[in-house]
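so the lab meeting is tmrw and i was supposed to have these ready like two days ago... anyway. pasting both below. for each one the top line is the aa sequence and the line under it is the structure tokens. i havent really looked at them closely yet so no promises
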Amino acid sequence: MQDLEFATIEDWDEALWARMEPIYHDAFPSGAKTKSILRNMLNRGIGCLHTGVHQGEVVALAVTGMVGKAAHRILIIDYLAVEQKLRGSGIGTWMLEQLKAWGLREHGIKGMIIEAESGTTEAHRKRIQFWQSNGFVLTSYVHQYRMVPEPYQAMILPLDGSTHVSDDGEALFRYINAFHKVAYRKS
């Protein structure tokens, strides 16, 4: 797909969210953060929304946050979604490249972390394969949240060879849990 535009949104925009929301809810029908939580994350400066736009239409989105001190800053990709009919067209990989470039340029990130559902279905395998095909390393540790039925595994993409970014799943979940703790805080 040609002519994609990437944008990062740091201030809540209700009209833009209305264009993003169908993709978000289609990709994450249950267990996703509510609009209120996402809006609070942006309003408090702890998260960003990112869009991929083609001919004026939002075709992809991401929700991200930062953890760690400046010398060890990590970009958490909380959610990444592509419009269903365009999945498999390379837009997800394009979004990841844009997120990586933005994170390096704006925040000097040392790595990127995601958590992937650790299931045995074909959909779970395809998601993990997508991340692995984009350079992410799957850790063996399986994390079980108390309030979420699905188990998860952390995946990491180290970006700075001079800085050690742990590939230990338990250590990576400390980053993820630190981000979630702040994201779900009311104020």
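ok protien two:
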Amino acid sequence: MPRAPKKSAPRKATTPAELAAHYRSKIEDGTLAPGETVPSHTKVIEELKTSPSTINKAWQILKAEGLIRTEPGKGTFVTDQSDVAVTGAARLRRIERTGQPYAPGETVTNRWVGLRSVADPKIAELLEVEPHDEIVLRRRVHRRPGRPPTVDLSCIHMRALIDVPELLQEQPFDRFWQEIYTERTGREVTRAPERRTARLVSNDELKALGVDLPDEVAAAVLVVVNVFHDENGPLEVWEDVYPPGAWQVDDE
């Protein structure tokens, strides 16, 4: 089972903006799922040492952003975010905060692992390898209720295989593989600021996303990129590819 990281004690949310940011993060990374009830005022006050007026103003912010809705006599709920993408960085923050590898209701399918030559010059540049050099490629599709599916591509430098040969095994790790790498090498891995771009989607990606388009139609997709380094240089390029029409909210 994944190791749960040490959780820091809840700190007081002193302003409505801080409280809204706290729950926005939970909604965007899947800790609070679409349709789930937002915590009661009593629970928020107990956990975050805040006031009813701060909570009311924070909820107004989240309602204005379309993240929550109130149904009279029933409660306040997380809205459906079917077009809003969850980024890799948000998933990592959730793992750090909760120790859970997946959000509630999340499934992972279409796993594929192997060695591939780098066909994308941008990936080669980010990994600091030559075009058509061999890399480790790990691919899977994340699916969550109320969110667009994600094709998750991990493009990993070959030097990582020296210390983590399990990267070529198809079965998932029980924790983020970079933790294992750090344990075995003593080298810390850091993440560069997340990047967002768009490009034409490939047929393989469309198939994995379950999108059916006529052959003559070219579609652009949102791609969110995270690059990880250690002291020896780039180690992994992580791409999240979303279906046409998906968009992403930045909470960092």
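from a quick look at the 2nd one: The radius of gyration is 20 Å. Confidence is low (pLDDT under 50) at residues 1-10. will dig more after coffe
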